[in-house]
C-alpha cells in the first residue's frame, strides 16, 4: 500500500452530513424499514377508523392501504415506489412480514378450539361439508377457463391442471375463521343457534382448508408424484408425533410449572414460541409452507385453565399492530388493478365473486335448513360462511409465491375476497336483525304465535301471571338484578343480605349421633325414613324468597384474546374462576340467597343495552347499579388520588361522565325499578396539625415534608377499619309522594324485616307557595335513588276535595292521600316490625331552597 493511499470511512453524520435517510443501505436497512413500517401502519389505522363505523374488519383497511400504496394508485406517482419501496428493500420487508405470518397462524391455531367441532359434530359436519363441496365444485368449473386463459402469463410456472384446479377450489371453499369470530362477537350472535352452528362449522372448515392447502403446496413443490407422496407421509407422521408424543409431554411440563393455573411465565412463553418456530422450520424444509407448522402447534396447545387465552394476550399486540399490517399491505402492493383492463377479465372477476358468494350461501343455507333451522337463520349462516377475510389473502399469497397464480389472477381473487368480506356484516344484520332474534326465541318458548306474533292464550300462563302480580304486591323485590363491580362489591353484598329476611341458623347435630344404636334398624333405614328432627329442620328452613341474578360485564376489545374469552365462556366455565363472581356466589351460599351469577363480554358502548336486556328477560323487580368511584367504566382506581381527597363529593358526581352516561342510558330504557347504590365517603382522619393524611399505595404516605415507607411499628398502612360493635343499619327515607316513593317505602318495609335494620320515613309536605318536591327519593347511606319505570303499578291516587280545580286544592288532595297511605302502612305493621320503623311528618313553608340537597338537609335536621 502506498503512502498516498487513504482509506475513506463512511460518513456517520447522517442527515447532518446531507445523507438521504430514504436511500436503501444493505448494511443498515433499519432506516428504510422504519419509514416503510410507519407509513403502512399509519395508513392502515387511518383507513380502519371510518370502516370500523360500519363494522368492517381491520383486514379490509390493511389490504386497501396496500392497494393505495401500490401500483394501482400512489405507485403511479413518479419516483414514489423507488423512494419508499425500492426493490432491494422488499426482501427485508417480506422477512419480517412472513415471521409475523407464522406467529399469526400460531395464534389462529390457539383460537381454534376443536371442542366446538366435537360438541356439535353432526350439524358442524353437515354445514361445513356442504359449505365446502359446492364452492369447491363450482370453483373447479371456473378453474378450467382460468387455466386456459391466464396460465401462460409471466410469473407462473408450468403446472398440471389438477394442481391448479385443487388450488382454485381451496380458494373458493375456505372460510376466514378469525374474522368470523370477530363478526359473531360484535353482532352478539355467539349465544344464538346461528352463532353456535357457524362457530362449529367454521372450525371444521378452517382445519380441512389448511390441510388441503398443505397438500396443494406439497404437490407444487415436489418434482415428481413419488416425492409428493413422501412429503405427505412425512407430514402425517409429524402430526401424529405432535399429537400423541409431544402434546402429553408439553401438558405435563405446563402442569409442573403451574402455567395452567396461573398463566404462562416469560420462560414458558419463550419455549412455546421456539417450539412454534421450530415446527415452522420443519414443515418448510420438507416442502410444506412454514405457516402450517405454526398452525399445528397452536392447534395442539391446551385450552385448560384459559392457557390459550393467556398466551395469546402475551403476543397478540405485537403481531396485530406491527406484523400483520406489513403482510397484508404487501398483498396490496402486489395487487395491480390496472391489469383488470379487458371485458374478458372483468367477466371472470364477476364470475369468481358470484361463485364464491352464491355457492357458499346456498351450501350453508341448504344444510342448515335440513338441520331444522328457519330460512332466515339458514341464509344468515350461509352469508357468514361466505366470509373470506385474511385467510383467503394468505392462501392467495401462497399461490402467488408458488407461482400458481399470475399477478392478474391474484388481483382478481383479491377483489373477490374484499367484496365477500365487506358484504358479510351488512347482509347478516339485514337477514337476522335483533327483533327477529327475539321473535324466534319467544316462538320457540311457546309464548307467541309465529304468523301473527300475538301471545298464545293459556290458562296456566294467565294463572302464573296473576300469581306473580299477587306476590309482587306482597313483596316488592323478589327478583334482584345486580351489576357486579369490584369497587362496589362490599355494598352490593350488604344490601342483598338485608333484602332477604334473616333466619337464625338452627343448631345442628352430627348425623352419627342421630343414628339408631340397633344394627337392624340401621339396615332397614332408608332415605325416606327421616327423623323427626330432620322434618322439623325442613319445615323451619323455607326456600329463599329473594332471587339474585348478578351480571359481570367485561369489555370486548379489538384483541383476539377478548374474542376467545367470549367464544369459550361455556367451555372454560369462565364464571367459575372469575374472582368477583366467585366472591358473590360464596356470599350468597353463606347467607342462604338464591344467586345466579354470569359473565358477559361485550363492547363498552353495549353495557347499558346488555343490562337492560337481562332485566327484561328475567322480569326483574329491582335493578341495582353500584356507583363508580373511579369516574369511568373501569373498576380499577386511578393512581391520582389528590382530586378525590380534596373534594370527594364533587369528584364522585361531576367527574363520572362515562359512568353517568351508562346509568342514564339504563334509566332511560329499562322498564323495571332501578336503584343507584352510592357508598359513603370514608372519613379521612386529621393528623393533629389541621392536615389530612392522604392514603397511598403500598404503605407510602406523604405528610408535610415527612416520607413514611411503612412496614415498621406504628407505620400507617392506610385507613384503619374498626370492628363494628352495633351492627344496626338505619335508613332515612324522605317521602314526597308518587309511585317512585311508594315503591321506596315498600322497599324499606322489606328491608326492616331484617332485625338489624331500622328506618325513619319522613313525609315531606311542601306548603302553598313553596317549590315543587324533589322527584328522587334518597335513602341516606344505603340507597342513592330509586326510579320506577313500570307503567302498571303504584300510581298516586287523589281524593275529591272541596278545593275546586285549583292547584293548591289538588296538592292538598295528594298530600292527604299520601298521609292515608302511610297511615295504613303504619297500622298494618306488627309490633316487632313497628318497633324498628318510625313515621314522621315535616311541613316546609314557601321560600325553601329549590334543590334536592336543600330539602334533604332540612329532613336530616328534623330527624
UniProtKB/TrEMBL annotation:
Pfam families hit by this protein: Na_H_Exchanger (PF00999)
Primary residence: membrane
Gene Ontology MF terms: antiporter activity
Compartments, as annotated in UniProt: Membrane
Membrane topology note: Multi-pass membrane protein
Transmembrane stretches, start-end: 30-47, 59-77, 89-110, 122-147, 159-184, 196-220, 226-246, 267-300, 345-367, 379-398, 410-432
Gene3D superfamilies for the chain: 1.20.1530.20
Record domain Cation/H+ exchanger transmembrane: where: 40-426
Composition-biased stretches (Low complexity): 515-529
Lineage: superkingdom: Eukaryota
Transmembrane helix as UniProt keyword: yes
Keywords: Ion transport, Membrane, Transmembrane, Transmembrane helix, Transport
Annotated stretches, region: Disordered: 503-547, 788-813
Record-level GO cellular component terms: membrane
InterPro entries linked: Cation/H_exchanger_TM, CPA2_transporter, Na+/solute_symporter_sf
GO terms for biological process, alphabetical: proton transmembrane transport
Protein name in the entry: Cation/H+ exchanger transmembrane domain-containing protein
Organism of provenance: Aspergillus eucalypticola (strain CBS 122712 / IBT 29274)
